[in-house]
Amino acid sequence: DGGITQSPKYLFRKEGQNVTLSCEQNLNHDAMYWYRQDPGQGLRLIYYSQIVNDFQKGDIAEGYSVSREKKESFPLTVTSAQKNPTAFYLCASRRMQGASDTQYFGPGTRLTVL
Amino acid sequence: GQQLNQSPQSMFIQEGEDVSMNCTSSSIFNTWLWYKQDPGEGPVLLIALYKAGELTSNGRLTAQFGTTRKDSFLNISASIPSDVGIYFCAGQRTSYDKVIFGPGTSLSVIP
Predict the structure, then answer these.
(1) Which of the residue ranges A13-17, A18-22, B23-27, B35-39 would you say has the lowest mean pLDDT?
(2) Suppose A33 and one of A1, A92, B71, B75 were both cysteines; which one would form an S-S bond, judging by CB atoms 3.0 to 4.6 Å apart?
(3) Which residues of chain A fall short of a pLDDT of 70?
(4) β-strands B105-110, B10-14: how paired?
């Protein structure tokens, strides 16, 4: 079964704890992305990576960190420095070999910090 | 930075009605994308457009790539309850650029 998987679907953490969200893809896509979505809001880019061992900050990177050690994996760590971490987190990926290579999303992880 | 505007922000329509929404940009894009997000799920790609003036259909959905390359339109014919969700437009200049997303249009269908 090909696609993008995010686990877990729901995640609860206590305030002050770091938490890592998983994103895996078996589509052999080059680029991977993390977005944050708040209720009734659009998608805001946190971090993205176009190649293994390289990544760039998006529009709201403060309080987050990522790694890209393998092409198929792009975990996101929400650190205690993130002031308002409760949100819906979406991972996406795409090939980058042609103009028709579009971006696909995972099912999302809803993080609630208590 | 680049921004996309979507209108309307939200819509409440009767089942069976047709729906039109649009997306505009201050910059030129070479690819326009339309996604639908169901509550609690990730967005799903509906239609991708790659050429100015292109008109593409996917079932009851039809999308157009504006001739100025600064806008795109999505139409849904004969709406049904499962059309409920948030519709996002997105634009991309080249295959190496980030995809830029609009704020979304929320669609509610009254049975």
Answers:
(1) A13-17
(2) A92
(3) 1-2, 99
(4) parallel
| Residue contact B90–A105, C-beta within 8 A | no
Query: Is B67 within 8 Å of B49 (Cβ atoms)?
Result: no
Q: Which amino acid is at B85?
A: G
Please provide the DSSP assignment of B38-55 as one string: -TTS--EEEEEE-STT-E
Provide the percentage of residues in chain B whose pLDDT is more than 70. Answer: 98
> In this structure, what token pair is assigned to residue A69?
């050690």
Chain B nearest-CA distance from A106, in A, is: 6
**A45 vs A57: CA distance, rounded Å:** 8
Place of tokens 């770091």: A18
Closest CA to B4 of B17, B18, B21: B21
Residue that has been written with the tokens 């993205």 in this structure: A48
C-alpha angle A67-A73-A74 in degrees, rounded to nearest 5: 40
A63 and A82 in contact (C-beta within 8 Å)? yes
Which structure tokens are listed for A101?
């290579």
